[in-house]
Amino acid sequence: MKLIISILIPVLVGAISGYFTTSGVNGWYALANKPWFNPPNWIFAPVWSMLYVLMGIAFFLVWKADAPKDIKQTAIILFAVQLVLNFFWSIIFFKMQQPGWAFAEIIVMWVMILLTILWFGKINTAAAWLLVPYICWVSFASVLNYSIWRLN
Q1: Alpha-carbon distance 81 to 143, whole Å?
Q2: What pLDDT is recorded for position 79?
Q3: Helices 132-151 and 44-63: crossing angle, nearest 10°?
């Protein structure tokens, strides 16, 4: 049951933020100037879906681990904070159409993901490694976000 809950949490966050993303993607984002390395829109949903599942599995490994309470509690709080930031990035970027503010927010999110990886690593190495594709994608998304902001 913990595994299902652990995967559902980030997947639901992604689904709800996807709701806010849709109007922006079909609206101002479709008309915005984008850099040459901007991927096609269809790639984002499968990539994010996979990343949310990996996040959930990583969270499960930490949640079920026998680890000191303070380290585990910090890891879970960091995970929650980065997930909240992940949710609000879509609203800031797509719904509010504020790529500058979204860039500032994604930098904070990146730092929180890194801290989450470090704390997860204290509890379960596999959990930390499961978040590496996520921070890589967010790194790319940060560059993309910055480029869109500067081009528009």
Answers
A1: 22
A2: 98
A3: 140
What is the average per-residue pLDDT within 78-105? 96
- Domain CATH code at residue 74: 1.20.1260.100
Domains of the chain: total: 1
The average confidence (pLDDT) of the chain is 95
Residues of the domain holding 69: 2-151
**Please, what is the angle between helix 69-90 and helix 99-123, to 10°?**
160
Nearest to 93 by CA among 75, 105, 110: 105
Counting Cα atoms < 13 Å in the Cβ hemisphere of 117 gives: 15
Residues in the chain: 152
Confidence band (pLDDT; 50, 70, 90) for 65?
Answer: very high
- Gap between the Cα atoms of 95 and 76, Å rounded: 28
